[in-house]
């Protein structure tokens, strides 16, 4: 076959989703979710409306599978041109070439744990999910457990739920198990004598506490003593608790709803009760929708774990 013919064949839609799943290692569930949410590829359709993929699609999906397995978020790399994806692949292959066998085994173990956890969620098996998390606690350091297993797990569950691949019952079951697991871990952190106190909460009207628990774990690891207040706490109660414990700062997790006027009022009330000298930090999926209110009360906004860790260092 001539080079021109090979090039033309690369863009012929001829592979079923089952073939692509087998070649890339991506489940059909994830393939469909990535297509709908990120438009990673746009497969052709057969006369019977079945997906048909090209060799170029398979190559791109294989690289994306490799990158996400090596710590990249699909939302950060899905829209990159193929040349940039290939460069990232080569860069990571070069780095991984120098990994020790122990480090290679570690990456493989994390991926296996994540897949086992997702399977437990998909089958609505809370005991299996709890068992996977506890296995991760034995196999991984606490920072790796949080960054490489818990956060990717809940992110993927959220993506699959938004794409209709999982029901709200799946998300609620998984959240309940992870919240209980994190609560237990956070309760066992040893706090250095004289450590500064950071209050962590979600304001009234914000019921989702997983982000706050993850932030609490990060603060413990950074050497803080965490006063964890939980979800949906009125501003007056947050301020009173901080006064009793002498908390140096407050972390607020804002997940849902987005841009809620009642939440904005709570933020302003909290600043009123705390005064101007107490640092306020805010993060979470909804934080940008409150950016104007947060700026008005002098709160620092972070959008990543690294940003939160930097904010803690600056206090």
Topology:
Blueprint: H1 3-10, H2 17-24, H3 28-38, E1 44-45, E2 51-52, H4 55-69, H5 74-77, H6 82-97, H7 101-122, H8 126-139, H9 142-162, H10 168-187, E3 197-203, H11 210-221, E4 225-233, H12 235-245, E5 249-253, H13 261-274, E6 280-283, H14 291-296, E7 300-301, H15 305-314
Parallel strand pairs: 3-4, 3-5, 5-6, 6-7
Antiparallel strand pairs: 1-2
Helix pairs in contact: 4-6, 7-8, 7-9, 8-10, 9-10, 9-11, 10-11, 12-13
Textual characterization of the structure:
- The protein has three domains: 95 residues, Multidrug-efflux Transporter Regulator, Chain: A, Domain 2; 86 residues, Methionine synthase domain (Methyltransferase, Methionine Synthase (B12-binding Domains), Chain A, domain 1), CATH 1.10.1240.10; 123 residues, Rossmann fold (3-Layer(aba) Sandwich).
- The chain is 61% helix and 10% strand.
- It has 15 helices and seven strands.
- Helix 14 links the parallel strand 6 and strand 7.
- Helix 12 runs parallel beside helix 13.
- It starts with a helix and ends with a helix.
Descriptive terms for the model:
315 residues; alpha/beta; Multidrug-efflux Transporter Regulator, Chain: A, Domain 2; Methyltransferase, Methionine Synthase (B12-binding Domains), Chain A, domain 1; Rossmann fold; 3 domains; two-stranded antiparallel ribbon; 15 helices; 10% strand; elongated
């Amino acid at each position: 076959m001539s080079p021109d013919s090979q090039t033309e064949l690369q863009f012929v839609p001829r592979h079923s989703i089952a073939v692509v799943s087998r070649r890339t290692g991506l489940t059909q569930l994830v393939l469909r979710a990535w297509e709908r949410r990120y438009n990673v590829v746009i497969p052709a359709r057969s006369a019977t409306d079945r997906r048909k993929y090209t060799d170029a699609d398979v190559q791109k999906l294989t690289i994306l599978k490799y990158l996400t397995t090596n710590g990249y978020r699909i939302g950060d790399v899905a829209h990159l041109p193929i040349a940039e994806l290939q460069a990232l692949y080569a860069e990571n292959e070069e780095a991984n070439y120098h990994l020790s066998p122990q480090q290679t085994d570690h990456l493989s173990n994390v991926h296996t744990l994540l897949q086992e956890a997702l399977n437990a969620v998909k089958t609505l098996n809370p005991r299996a999910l709890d068992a996977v998390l506890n296995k991760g606690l034995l196999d991984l350091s606490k920072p790796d457990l949080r960054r490489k297993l818990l956060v990717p797990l809940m992110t993927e569950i959220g993506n699959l739920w938004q794409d209709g691949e999982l029901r709200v019952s799946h998300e609620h079951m998984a959240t309940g198990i992870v919240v209980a697991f994190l609560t237990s871990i956070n309760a066992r952190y040893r706090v250095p004598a004289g450590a500064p106190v950071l209050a962590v909460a979600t304001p009234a009207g914000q019921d989702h506490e997983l982000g706050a628990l993850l932030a609490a774990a990060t603060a413990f690891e950074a050497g803080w003593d965490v006063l964890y207040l939980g979800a949906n706490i009125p501003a007056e109660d947050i301020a009173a608790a901080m006064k009793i414990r002498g908390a140096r700062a407050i972390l607020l997790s804002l997940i849902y709803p987005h841009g809620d006027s009642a939440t904005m009022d709570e933020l302003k009330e909290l600043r009123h009760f705390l005064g101007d000298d107490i640092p306020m930090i805010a993060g979470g999926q909804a934080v940008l929708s409150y950016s104007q209110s947060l700026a008005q009360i002098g709160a620092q906004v972070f959008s990543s774990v690294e940003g939160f860790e930097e904010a803690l260092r600056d206090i």
